[in-house]
């Protein structure tokens, strides 16, 4: 049998391995030049915002909530079709989640979904809205930002992108073309470099922002909230000997965490980021091959839905399958594909249905999220695949679903 095709996997070459080994032979294994270099390289790729790297995508989201001062009594809007971490970041700081519905075809939050979710704020302060660029498809940023700006509240909610799927994605608005991470329509954007994502650090994350004060605070809270800037010291008599700050001195004025990324991970990130254009081009070619083949499958299997104004660097290929009409369960289709050496996955179980969130907020009905969930199946998509692999997956999928070719 041919090689097993997982739904996603990293591409690591000898130069990536050499980059990590170089760090191991150097003086700094953490908080060293590779971390600063990775942040600078990401900033360049995004169009020059500030970038703060952290341990993973979850810590990036958590830090975003901390620096915005989100806390108990506040609410944040999160689309229900996402990974757990988007909603959990809101809970880590003691705030509440309003789950928004999503488009049943794409799984992405639409303007009307945001409006409807905001109507459920019931006078509570909406601190942030967290659009998720599901599978790399960019949410309608301009429209979401304008809804946030118009929301009647002293300080409008911040837009915090969960861009964990979307490094390399672009989008267009009435004003031009933008790269995800550029933060022209958001306060912050968050990325993950988990091995199934578009570039891999093993574990790794980053937050980009145009706000230098927020960037400084992200960096501070990433490392215990330690302040080393003498101008800001509050314990002046401990900090200074005459006019000179004591060389060992630091202060903690707010509590932070150890959310640092290592230099080994950052060096891998730098090396991987150089290949981003190549990875994205490869993913786009594979997506085009899938789209071409699935377009001809009839109503039972539909290609991944495209979104207006979004030019995705797709992390996932989410086919939409009418399991009911096919008379097969999703579990049966997944098992049949697995027997053919093909891995698939479901992204995602709507988060509002998780027992933890049901216990907090009760049963909610979000028809778009449930409709998307009922049909979605992520097919293998990673740069080392060949067009022949796509053909093999589609052949096996048609057999498994019962589509005659
Ligand atoms: C992967 C992912 C995260 C979390 O990233 P980690 O690096 O795994 O912590 C958050 N949101 C989404 C949408 C993700 O896919």
3D architecture notes:
This protein is of the alpha/beta class. It has two domains: 14-274, 3-Layer(aba) Sandwich (Aspartate Aminotransferase, domain 2); 276-401, Alpha-Beta Complex (Aspartate Aminotransferase, domain 1). Helix content is 38%, strand content 16%. It is built from 15 helices and 17 strands. The protein has helices at 14-24, 33-46, 57-67, 84-92, 111-118, 141-150, 212-222, 236-239, 263-274, 276-294, 323-326, 330-339, 355-361, 367-375, 387-401, and strands spanning 50-54, 75-79, 96-100, 126-129, 158-162, 170-173, 176-179, 188-192, 205-209, 226-227, 240-241, 244-245, 251-252, 301-302, 310-311, 317-321, 376-379. The strands form five sheets. It has a seven-stranded mixed beta sheet, with helices on both faces. The chain has a three-stranded antiparallel beta sheet with strand order 7-6-15, with no helix packed on it. It has a three-stranded antiparallel beta sheet with strand order 14-16-17. α2 packs parallel to α9 (263-274), α3 runs parallel beside α4 and α10 (276-294) packs parallel to α15. The longest helix is centred in the C-terminal third of the chain and has 19 residues, at 276-294. The chain starts with 13 loop residues before the first helix and ends with a helix. The relative contact order is 0.17. Pyridoxal-5'-phosphate is lined by residues 56-58, 82-83, 85-86, 132, 162, 164-165, 192, 194, 205.
